[in-house]
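Students often ask why inverse folding is considered easier than folding. One informal answer: many sequences map to the same fold, so there is more than one right answer. In these notes we will look at a single instance of the problem. The structure comes first.
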């Protein structure tokens, strides 16, 4: 892919490392060209001082993804030109990042001609403005927050002669690169935002991190009228340690923090963000989570955008450690995935149309380089969460490339034991076995809706290895649970089904839900093999499916109660188990109606939460007579969130108070009305 470019970096590799790169080159003539670029783990590209692009597709060292960026001829000039790149390496595993070899490679080409390429002529130095090294993390899933010092900016992006740059280290790496599998995000100029509150504050402990300082400051409000930003600066004055203001973005958003603030002295600014104001301020500090950053402003005007981590929520709280600030703008630049269509289902009433609209907004907020569980707290790709998002996207967006890329990326996270990493790309986290089974289901559904059989063939080795991981654990006819601590035996955020990330307090030898998802995966794989014409292979897996179905009914079905219990030592009858027994075909036809009626009558507990209601509704809709029930339940549950003020759909019905006050108010798995409104 690269003709002459070399991978470059600094002499050292550290966690949370920001580097500035400059590369001068000459053009005899000006024409349209292309920039090929890849940076582990992210980049911001400037050309002749102008922002061009950012947003590295998160990948693996063995799956290095390259962006191709169109450069218009008017961005270049005859004679000397300057490529400036702010490069970033996280260099510590997280839920959406796999530690790899730091490095930057780029090549500017016009036709077959290389105009500029990274190498020994590229110069590098540590960033003067961004703090590198160990600082507080936003969350363990997202990685580090950031600290920026505008007083140290020396114009390196576009100035002629800058000190401190030197030749880079040439990094030895293989030359296997891949084209970006999804489109680049489209970035807007910023959203509408209003000042919702303002005042002055005191903070007596400056040793706290930015999130802690915002959350513990003593605040005294100033009376004012709600102000929409954009028509002119808003001046805020106070007499205490500093002044503060709270920004309302009008709805849930996800994107890059951007602002235009003017101060009359060099001063610290803490900036926090969140989804609600339940605490009468942004909930910036939750346990070890720190939803804030710091910016040290220079005297005068400060215009800034942070193009790396996407912030998400509805509110931004700004604490300026000065007695006066002029607020030009504070908001979010939104990077949106370009979709070719957004279909509209027929026959919806006005309330259902609003549910559908907010479902679409929720899906898009959780759709950037790959599917995300939530844009605020994690931004992580899970196979279970993406199951819901893919199905909704097939109907609402007719979007298949994005689904394929996410399935492939998850597959690249396959471990030696055959299971998939908890998230992709990631490292060091115990996998959820049932999620690997769901990956096989996702693969079948993708092939079913997209008719992309080439990708299905490509993915057969991953699916085989997953299914063998389950098959190898069969004892007394059923799959034995995976060892707790090394694996997370999670099924749903419901009582008795969520397991324990660090190891279950009670050891169960086996349970019905793991076996039911294995059976569901086998059924899906048999259908996929038949679709691909692999009839001999289908025959082998069909027999495994028959065997496990029989064993499940022998081990877990209670004929008297007419339902499947979780396990011998936990005689609960989860709604999820009943739903998957029907979808997988394990439940004999003679019992299907009884179980469907039991689900509708709320006989089986614990109930499915938002994440798994898709299985409940899909199971019920196998009988068309249940359409009204499903439609009414969706209307009742999802409208209650709307009436509570939701602009995106929540992680659970407990909202922000769930998970010890860390519940997400935007979660991709909760957008399933966008799928079911096409089926009802």
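Output (designed amino acids):
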């Amino acid at each position: 892919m690269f003709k002459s470019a070399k991978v470059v970096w600094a002499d050292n590799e550290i966690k949370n490392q920001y580097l500035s790169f400059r590369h001068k080159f000459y053009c005899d003539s000006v024409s349209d060209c292309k920039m090929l670029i890849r940076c582990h783990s992210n980049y911001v590209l400037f050309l002749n001082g102008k922002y061009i692009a950012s947003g590295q597709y998160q990948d693996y060292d063995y799956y290095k993804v390259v962006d191709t960026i169109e450069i218009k001829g008017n961005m270049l000039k005859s004679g000397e030109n300057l490529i400036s790149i702010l490069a970033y390496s996280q260099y510590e595993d997280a839920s959406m990042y796999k530690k790899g070899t730091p490095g930057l490679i780029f090549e500017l080409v016009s036709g077959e001609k290389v105009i500029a390429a990274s190498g020994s002529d590229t110069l590098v130095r540590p960033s003067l403005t961004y703090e590198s090294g160990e600082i507080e993390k936003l969350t363990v899933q997202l990685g580090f927050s950031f600290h920026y010092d505008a007083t140290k900016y020396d114009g390196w992006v576009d100035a002629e002669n800058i000190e401190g740059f030197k030749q880079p280290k040439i990094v030895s790496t293989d030359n296997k690169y891949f084209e970006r599998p999804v489109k680049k995000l489209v970035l807007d100029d910023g959203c509408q935002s209003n000042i919702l509150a303002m005042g002055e504050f005191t903070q007596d402990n400056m040793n706290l991190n930015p999130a802690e300082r915002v959350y513990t400051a003593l605040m005294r409000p100033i009376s004012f009228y709600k102000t929409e930003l954009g028509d002119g600066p808003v001046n805020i004055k106070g007499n205490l340690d500093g002044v503060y203001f709270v920004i309302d973005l009008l709805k849930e958003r996800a994107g890059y923090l951007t602002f235009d603030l003017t101060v009359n002295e060099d001063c610290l600014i803490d900036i926090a963000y969140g989804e609600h104001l339940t605490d009468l301020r942004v909930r910036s500090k939750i346990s070890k989570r720190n939803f804030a950053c710091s910016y040290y402003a220079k005297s005068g005007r400060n215009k800034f955008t942070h193009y790396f981590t996407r912030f998400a929520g509805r509110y931004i709280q700004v604490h300026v450690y000065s007695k006066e600030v002029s607020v030009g703008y504070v908001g979010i630049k939104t990077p949106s995935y370009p979709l070719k269509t957004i279909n509209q289902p027929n026959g919806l009433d006005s309330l259902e149309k609003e549910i559908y609209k907010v479902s679409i907004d929720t899906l898009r907020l959780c759709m950037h380089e790959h599917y995300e569980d939530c844009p605020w707290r994690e931004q992580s790709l899970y196979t279970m969460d993406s199951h819901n998002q893919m199905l909704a996207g097939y109907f609402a967006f007719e979007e298949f490339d994005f689904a394929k890329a996410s399935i492939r990326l998850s597959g690249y996270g396959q471990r030696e034991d055959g299971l998939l990493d908890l998230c992709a790309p990631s490292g060091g986290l115990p996998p959820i076995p049932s999620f690997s089974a769901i990956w096989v289901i996702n693969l079948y559904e993708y092939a079913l809706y997209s008719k992309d059989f080439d990708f299905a063939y490509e993915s057969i080795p991953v699916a085989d290895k997953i299914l063998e991981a389950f098959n190898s654990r069969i004892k007394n006819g059923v799959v034995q649970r995976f060892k707790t601590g090394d694996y997370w035996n999670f099924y749903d955020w419901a009582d008795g089904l969520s397991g324990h990330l660090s190891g279950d307090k009670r050891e169960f030898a086996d349970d019905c839900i793991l076996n039911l998802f294995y059976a569901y995966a086998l059924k899906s794989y048999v259908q996929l093999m038949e679709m691909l014409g692999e009839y001999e292979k289908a025959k082998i897996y069909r027999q495994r499916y028959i065997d496990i179905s029989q064993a499940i009914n022998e081990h877990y079905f209670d004929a008297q109660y007419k339902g499947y219990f979780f396990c011998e030592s936990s005689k609960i009858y989860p709604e999820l188990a009943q739903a998957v027994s029907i979808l997988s075909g394990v439940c004999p036809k003679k019992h299907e109606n009884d179980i469907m009626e039991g689900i509708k009558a709320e006989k089986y507990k614990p109930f499915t939460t938002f994440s798994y209601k898709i299985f409940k509704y899909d199971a019920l809709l196998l009988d068309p007579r249940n359409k009204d029930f499903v439609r009414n339940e969706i209307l009742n549950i999802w409208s209650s969130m709307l009436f509570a003020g939701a602009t995106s759909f929540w992680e659970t019905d407990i909202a922000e108070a769930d998970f010890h006050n860390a519940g997400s108010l935007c979660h991709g798995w909760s957008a399933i009305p966008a799928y079911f409104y096409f089926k009802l």
